Amino acid sequence: MNLLQRSSQTLRAAELIRHGFKTNIVVQDTGLSSNTIRTLYKEVQGQSPKAGQLPSPASILSTTQALLHASIFMAHYTKHIESNSEDRVDINLLIQAYNRYRRELKKWNDNNVEESRLLSVNDSWVLARGLVAKLVQVHLCSSGHFYISTPKQRTLPICPFCKSHQH
Ligand SMILES: [Zn+2]
Question: Which segments of the chain are extended strands (E)?
Answer without folding.
Answer: 137-140, 146-149
